[in-house]
Specification:
With 232 residues, the protein is an alpha/beta fold. The protein is 34% helix and 27% strand. A hairpin with a 2-residue loop joins strand 9 and strand 10.
């Protein structure tokens, strides 16, 4: 589904990504691991078109999207849940979801209703402003809003940061269930070892703008010093 070849990108004259190669198959959940400042979020932003590629190619479903503007990538089926959530704080939960469904095909109200069924914790707050939700509830709202755009590929950037354990477990269960029912593909940036282990089919490590190691999830977890198998 996603094919990245020799991709380089950065901010002005500062090059962050250096010849990145990555392939993600349809229906696969891939974890992207690395310390802060290694280029993980830069890769996400380049895939979606917020940053231009200075070299290399990005292909999605066989089409070269390297030079496509962000809205075309979104319409093609690439969705992003950014680090920090970035919901619309003054809009209600329902209106946040409706914003996510703006470019969706089909009955938008039905799409929003399905999102609430997928994330039942949000149902009692449907008319509440998004900014009044807890941090964990806002993260669920950001996930649900992205899914309302009916993405084929979801880019998920550091979703567990500052989130309580019960909601982290809920995210794992919900995303696995949605993959089972829709064939969703996921590229996940995360530093929570248990979360990335619970969701990912394999894990690639980024170091100084390059992908350096690819491991099965089991091998990745075994390589982490002091890891204990808990989601939070």
């Amino acid at each position: 589904m996603l094919e990245i070849n020799d991709l380089s990108s950065g901010y002005g004259d500062i090059q962050i990504l250096r010849g990145v190669n990555l392939s993600v198959r349809r229906g696969e959940f891939v974890g992207l691991w690395g310390h802060n400042g290694m280029g993980k979020s830069t890769l996400m932003r380049t895939i979606l078109g917020y940053l231009p590629a200075s070299a290399g190619t990005i292909k999605f479903n066989g089409a070269d999207i390297t030079r496509h503007p962000t809205f075309k990538r979104s319409r093609a089926g690439v969705g992003l849940v950014p680090q920090g959530r970035h919901i619309f704080p003054h809009l209600s939960v329902m209106d946040n979801l409706r914003m996510g469904a703006v470019m969706s095909v089909g009955d938008r109200e039905a799409i929003v209703a399905k999102a609430l069924n997928d994330f039942p914790r949000l149902k009692p707050y449907a008319d509440r402003a998004g900014g009044l939700l807890s941090g964990g509830e806002q993260q669920l709202l950001a996930l649900a809003r992205c899914l309302c755009s009916q993405p084929h590929l979801m880019l998920l950037d550091e979703p567990t940061e500052g989130i309580q354990p019960s909601i982290i477990s809920e995210m794992v269960d919900t995303l696995l269930r949605i993959r089972e029912s829709t064939g969703l593909t996921l590229l996940l940036v995360e530093q929570n070892q248990a979360f990335i282990g619970a969701l990912s089919d394999r894990v690639v490590t980024m170091h100084k703008g390059q992908l350096t190691i690819e491991q099965t999830t089991g091998a990745f977890l075994a390589s982490q010093p002091g890891f204990t198998p808990q989601v939070a």
